[in-house]
Design a protein that fits this description.
Order of helices and strands: HEEEEEEHHEHEHHHHHHEHHH
CATH superfamily of the largest domain: SGNH hydrolase
Helix content: 40-55%
Largest sheet: 4 strands, parallel
Strand content: 5-15%
CATH topology of the largest domain: Rossmann fold
Number of strands: 9
Number of helices: 13
Structural class: alpha/beta
CATH class of the largest domain: Alpha Beta
Length: about 350
């Protein structure tokens, strides 16, 4: 009996010691590291917001990447309390995007959408960006939104290199109780993410533990890994997917052209591309996109020359993040968009 009691106390002591060590390590990472929590609260999303596409919940207060975010009556991200006077503005700019455009872990005022609110203060900025979106979702949103909003005079698409794939959308689909199991999972990472219990455990840990994320980033080298994954989307084997994505962008441009509305397309870079600009493979996605979009009548903007090459590339992105901009990165994209809008004969306010 005493032996069993001793073994039990030893086991409990070991568990307590492990919990103490993990707690200290978690505190150390939170104190000395710039790691951002990842993940989003389920109440941020609703199914069928724009045709078949999910969207942000209207008038929501939710958590994204560990920080509070707010949406307006349309489900578009806004500052807390909204933007006074927006309802009375005669013209608007519509921003299309995914999580890069939504701007997680960055204060709304410091995102490129927030910065554009200041530059074009007489116009309403609709930031329709939704985490998990890809090109079919942009098309669904334009088809559903534009006929009801004649005040939109310009549309900006911030195209993320992973917009060729619907993998991110599948993760959000679990939140809104809608799955598409017919979509193939071309690599091991996507197959693992498709398993609900793995995705649920990952979502739980990455939204609560910076230690988990720090170890994960260090072990997996997530910035380079995510770059290598997205590069596969621009291989010859995935040409059909790429052409379909460009076809969606061309269809959006055609829809807008019928209304005499210009479309500005900005291709958001990955961190690796700014870090290794001389790597020939870092040129592949933009080269193929520019070629295919130009052939379809759309002239995209590659903003990479606007980033200061003398500054560490990581400064422009969230810590250990392959694609989501920091406040510094958002400022660059805001400048690029503002210049493009001015070139389309929009006077600055």
């Amino acid at each position: 009996m005493r032996r069993r009691t001793g073994e039990l106390l030893l086991a409990l002591g070991s568990v307590f010691f492990l919990a103490l060590v993990l707690g200290i390590a978690e505190l150390a990472v939170r104190t000395f590291s710039a790691v951002d929590l990842v993940g989003n609260s389920k109440n941020l999303f609703v199914a069928g917001a724009w045709g078949k596409s999910h969207g942000n919940a209207p008038n929501a207060e939710a958590i994204s990447f560990g920080a509070p975010v707010y949406t307006d009556e349309l489900g578009f991200r806004v500052p807390q309390g909204g933007v006074p006077g927006d309802a009375g503005k005669a013209e608007a700019i519509l921003i299309l995007g995914d999580s890069v455009g939504f701007g997680p872990a960055v204060e709304e005022a410091d995102t490129f959408a927030g910065l554009l609110r200041v530059r074009f203060s007489a116009k309403r900025i609709y930031n329709s960006s939704v985490i998990g979106y890809s090109t079919p979702d942009y098309r669904n949103l334009v088809d559903a939104f534009m006929p009801l909003h004649p005040e939109v005079s310009r549309v900006v698409l911030v195209y993320c290199l992973n917009d060729v794939s619907a993998a991110s959308a599948r993760n959000i689909d679990r939140f809104v109780s809608r799955k598409d199991e017919s979509v193939p999972h071309p690599n091991l990472t996507e197959r693992l993410r498709s398993w609900a219990w793995i995705s649920d455990a990952n979502d739980y840990l990455r939204s609560r533990s910076k230690l988990y994320l720090f170890v994960r980033h260090r072990l997996l080298g997530t910035q380079v890994r995510d770059w290598n994954e997205v590069l596969q989307l621009y291989s010859e084997e995935r040409s059909a997917d790429l052409e379909h994505a460009v076809g969606d962008v061309a269809a959006i441009a055609a829809t807008l052209k019928e209304r005499a509305i210009p479309l500005v397309v900005v291709i958001a870079p990955f961190e690796y591309q700014l870090r290794q600009p001389d790597d020939p493979m870092s040129q592949v996605p933009q080269r193929r996109l520019v070629e295919l979009m130009s052939r379809a009548g759309v002239q995209p903007i590659d903003p990479r020359p606007r980033f200061d090459a003398s500054r560490p590339s990581s400064d422009y992105f969230l810590a250990y993040d392959a694609m989501h901009f920091s406040a510094a990165g958002h400022r660059v994209i805001a400048d690029v968009i503002a210049d493009a809008l001015t070139d389309t004969s929009m006077a600055r306010e």
